[in-house]
């Protein structure tokens, strides 16, 4: 349903600039260790960071291969917020995103935004290892490393980081133009950025392992994950991409082990959601050959109950991807009968129903669940099923509530545009499409589209007042964003 993504490259360049090393390297047990500073007050306020984060997220949506899958996004955000709840110095909201990329990487930037590469699901053996990556990136944000780096560079080039960030995002959409932008922007400041990054990494590692432990995950996952990457680099001609920009000396690995060994040992079982998310990421979003192979599925089939269920889910998912809907249904129906509220099974069963041209069955199944009134994934599934069942008015009622509650989710706006078009409500279709354009930073096009919607409704009507008020908001946003566009 939501597997509609663009393929792009060069996300690895973000790591060098954004201090976004995916690996936790140095962790300390004591919370009282010296803090090298988090205010960065001379350069950016928290409000400015939020504005810059908003700007760059919109650029990412427009140019990067973000995975716009509600199930996966819900999972990584729930996992991320579990970690954030145990972090100190949290000054901004947090948002977590997935990029469709088979290179191991992650990065964090202004305003509490953390981006993970889908390859992390392939490389991590358990949920604690994935959480260790996220804890490290969360610590980059809470320690305001980008703002502090800008402060460090202020005397020489105040907008160096702003320009470089913009060039990297441009590189994702247009490699030639983006590389040219990077070359010009970083020429005078690259060495300073690299030097500052090492300090950032040490601090993020130290704080990240504390967050990981407090959130109830296994701190040993950090050195284990480091060792895994070290082994990969030792036996391949091309090491993991993260190690090209952030070398992994033996001393770093030893230090990570030492810090983890000082912490209380804990046995942690990965959640059912972790295995389901891993199956979904590998089965639907690998950029090359399908990575959800028999080896992994057979291993899970011999494992614990959670792994066995994930193996069945994974096989059904592969049948769905191959459009073998009957075979997928044979696997999922018994699982759903035992767990009728399982969102992973419900989402897959809905797609199977639609694939079999039986959307009304999906509507009936989802409508009978109270969770469909509150769970965002089930709301989207029900709205989509209603659209497929030729009931756009009912879909619109759900989607109007959904988009109000989740204005940053393009899935809701895209489906609302479809539902409005099916009812010949041209102004409402244009309004929804304008919101999608705004989410990708295309503010001029969004304003133009909303102006067209405004012209279609009666003069002085409530609808026109609403459209015109939104146009004013987007113009103000456009004005705020101009300084960052100049920096690029």
From TrEMBL:
It comes from Mixta intestinalis. Residues 71-259 form the Peptidase M48 domain. InterPro entries: Mito/Outer_Membr_Metalloprot, Peptidase_M48, Protease_BepA, TPR-like_helical_dom_sf. Functions as both a chaperone and a metalloprotease. Maintains the integrity of the outer membrane by promoting either the assembly or the elimination of outer membrane proteins, depending on their folding state. One of its GO terms (biological process) is proteolysis involved in protein catabolic process. Zn(2+) binds at residues 136, 140, 201. It is found in: Periplasm. Residues 1-27 form the signal peptide. The active site is at residues 137, 205. Belongs to the peptidase M48 family. BepA subfamily. Its cofactor is Zn(2+). This is Beta-barrel assembly-enhancing protease. One of its GO terms (molecular function) is metalloendopeptidase activity. GO terms for cellular component: membrane; periplasmic space. HAMAP family: Protease_BepA (MF_00997). Keywords: Hydrolase, Metal-binding, Metalloprotease, Periplasm, Protease, Signal, Zinc. Binds 1 zinc ion per subunit. SUPFAM superfamilies: TPR-like (SSF48452). CDD domains: M48C_bepA_like (cd07333). Its EC number is 3.4.-.-. Pfam families: Peptidase_M48, TPR_19.
